[in-house]
Amino acid sequence: MQRLIVLASVAALSATAAPALAADPAKPAANSQCFRVSQIQNHTKGDAKTLYLSVKPKKAVYRLGMSGSCLAGVNSSDPLVLETVGGTDLVCRPLDLDLKVKLGPGGLTPCIIKDITRLTPDQVAALPPKVRP
């Protein structure tokens, strides 16, 4: 009898975990805001952990939060090296983009992107002018 109860408990747990495992983590969420690297117009540094991107055609602004202070010592005029993962230039989540900042001749500083957020028009308007891309 105990064996039957244990098997029933395992079956019930497996059934409830199956839908969570069925979700494909490689696909973006239905409500995510994606952009194409080829449509980035401009970038500015907010602080040592924040980068802002201006993306056309609708002048959308995205905030990229870094997991470390990879932007310390970087100017907004320093070039970015952006490489997408997965054979497309579509970015929907942090793992879709490999970001490095070029510092001087031959120096690349890698950044690990923690989060990507599309800002609302009010959030963009609230940014200080020097960090608004």
Folded structure, characterized:
- The protein is α+β, with helices and mostly antiparallel strands.
- It has a domain at 35-126.
- It contains two helices and nine strands.
- It has helices spanning 2-22, 121-126; strands at residues 35-36, 40-47, 50-55, 60-66, 80-84, 90-91, 97-103, 107-111, 113-118.
List its salient traits:
9 strands; four-stranded antiparallel β-sheet; 36% strand; 133 residues; single chain; disordered N terminus; alpha+beta; three-stranded antiparallel β-sheet
Provide a brief overview of the structure.
This protein has 133 residues and is of the alpha+beta class.
List low-pLDDT spans: 1-31
- Which sequence of SSEs, written as H and E, runs from N to C? HEEEEEEEEEH
**Distance separating the two termini:** 67 Å
Alpha-carbon Rg, integer: 20 Å
Secondary structure category: alpha+beta
Major sheet strand order: 2-3-4-9
- Discrete helix count: 2
Largest sheet: 4 strands, antiparallel
Mean pLDDT figure: 79
The rough form would be described as globular
Number of strands: 9
Question: Helix content range of the residues, please?
Answer: 10-25%
- Work out the strand percent: 35-45%
